[in-house]
TrEMBL record:
It comes from the Bacteria. Involved in cell wall formation. Catalyzes the final step in the synthesis of UDP-N-acetylmuramoyl-pentapeptide, the precursor of murein. Keywords: ATP-binding, Cell cycle, Cell division, Cell shape, Cell wall biogenesis/degradation, Cytoplasm, Ligase, Nucleotide-binding, Peptidoglycan synthesis. Residues 96-275 form the Mur ligase central domain. Residues 299-414 form the Mur ligase C-terminal domain. Residues 16-81 form the Mur ligase N-terminal catalytic domain. SUPFAM superfamilies: MurD-like peptide ligases, catalytic domain, MurD-like peptide ligases, peptide-binding domain, MurE/MurF N-terminal domain. The keyword Nucleotide-binding applies. Its main location: cytoplasm. It catalyses: D-alanyl-D-alanine + UDP-N-acetyl-alpha-D-muramoyl-L-alanyl-gamma-D-glutamyl-meso-2,6-diaminopimelate + ATP = UDP-N-acetyl-alpha-D-muramoyl-L-alanyl-gamma-D-glutamyl-meso-2,6-diaminopimeloyl-D-alanyl-D-alanine + ADP + phosphate + H(+). This is UDP-N-acetylmuramoyl-tripeptide--D-alanyl-D-alanine ligase. The lineage of its organism: Bacteria, Pseudomonadati, Bacteroidota, Flavobacteriia, Flavobacteriales.
Length: 425
């Protein structure tokens, strides 16, 4: 069956599903495959639960005219999303980078939705499956779509751009994330820049942080670029007023007080403000949007537990974001500061060196108490408390003898799930 025909079926009830636990009546079920599952085996269950059609790629499961047999279900999902995107009048902003993608995406969404009917990537559905699913959530009246694009190897952003075909794009930064897949920092710069390459080749517009020399180097001669800066008057000036602990910035004559901690979040706010300004969102509405946004899902959250104030940043971590979080924590006011750090994943051959550098930095900062959790941190040469696993930390919790009224930083990669420390406090 041609993609156009599948798209007609989709338009009749524009809901797609890849999980039989989330079937809604009249949806189209895509029987995706993974390393440990075969969605074809669940197609009949999807139909029984109310799906109207099931897209499968194995003949034995195509049992009636409710099944559509294709060569590859994933390819079909991606082709359908690309076709749907071409039919849509929505303007698409593509977003990638090493750190801050999801926060920046949510800030942009908050700002742009003050004026336009806007959709954005849900959570971190930013890969070869998540991007198509986001595109397929674009409705007939959608005016703007913010599409987050994640990548851990070369050519991945290029591929996602071919599906989403963004009209605009922004790269948050180039940090030490997914070093293993990209092959080092230069590989990261090359891989993330695939978004800018797509936009320049297709004569689309680029948003940039003009205080980032890498971005300026990549886009210096490009005409359709719109940047923000704290000092370069060739670009839109946005002043950083500080982060004690919450980020404050000034947009023309307006001072904005956000709910985001850490100076590293200034550029995320500034990018959203710049993009709002470009799309003629009134300044007062930009201020309102940035001040309304509250981080969640373990990203730079400020919480209280007992007598402790906690900075919970356990959604993800890499050497760049870990260093930024520690430097920000050092500047925060607090009598007794405690740090819990978990391993950083996907660093490949750089893992030993990068973990040692963070352990040395923590030692140099001389917090009242510091704890390193995970196999990589446990292998570092340091006098800081080390635990090879979270279970080991938990088992020894009563021996840590934490003081009352502490300011605590918790940060680690998602796989470490260090938010579990909250249950121990």
């Amino acid at each position: 069956m041609e993609i156009q025909q599948i798209h007609k079926h989709y338009l009749a009830n524009p809901i797609v599903c890849t999980d039989t636990r989330k079937i809604t009546k009249g949806c189209i079920f895509f029987a995706l495959k993974g390393d440990n599952f075969n969605g074809n085996k669940y197609a009949s269950e999807a139909l029984e639960k109310g799906a109207r059609l099931a897209i499968v790629d194995e003949q034995e499961f195509a049992k009636s005219n409710q099944y559509i047999l294709v060569d590859d279900v994933l390819n079909t999902l991606q082709e359908l999303a690309q076709f749907h995107r071409k039919q849509s009048k929505a303007q698409i902003i593509g977003l990638t980078g090493s750190n801050g993608k999801t926060t920046t995406k949510e800030l942009i969404h908050s700002v742009i939705s003050k004026k336009y009917k806007t959709i954005a990537t849900k959570g971190n559905l930013n890969n070869h499956i998540g991007v198509p699913l986001t595109l397929l959530s674009i409705k007939a009246d959608t005016e703007m779509a913010i599409i987050e694009m994640g990548a851990n190897h070369q050519k991945e952003i290029e591929f996602l751009c071919s599906i989403a075909q963004p009209d605009f794009g922004y790269i948050t930064n180039f940090g030490k994330a997914h070093l293993e897949g990209f092959g080092g920092v230069e590989g990261i710069i090359k891989g993330k820049s695939e978004l800018y390459h797509y936009l320049t080749e297709n004569k689309k517009a680029v948003f940039l942080n003009a205080d980032d020399p890498i971005q300026l180097n990549k886009l210096g001669s490009y005409i359709k670029k719109y940047g923000f800066s704290t000092q370069n008057k060739d670009y839109y000036i946005i002043d950083f007023l500080g982060a004690t602990p919450f980020v404050q910035l000034q947009l023309e004559n307006l001072k904005i007080h956000t709910n985001l901690i850490g100076s590293y979040n200034f550029t995320n706010c500034a990018a959203a403000a710049l993009i709002g300004k470009y799309f003629n969102v009134p300044l007062e509405k930009i201020k309102e949007a940035l001040e309304e946004y509250t981080p969640n899902n373990n990203r730079s959250q400020i919480l209280e537990k007992g007598s402790h104030q906690i900075i919970l940043d356990a959604y993800n971590a890499n050497p760049t974001s870990m260093k930024a979080a520690l430097e920000n924590f050092q500047q925060m006011e607090g009598n007794t500061k405690i740090v819990f750090l978990g391993d950083m994943f996907e660093l490949g051959e750089s893992a030993k060196k990068e973990h040692q550098e963070i352990a040395d930095l923590v030692k140099e900062m001389n917090y009242q108490q510091s704890f390193l959790v995970g196999e990589n941190f446990a292998a570092t040469n340091t006098t800081i408390h080390q635990f090879k696993t979270f279970d080991s930390l938990s088992e020894n919790w009563t021996t840590l003898k934490l003081e009352e009224n502490c300011l605590i930083l918790i940060k680690g990669s998602r796989g470490m799930a260090l938010e579990r420390i909250l249950d121990l406090l």
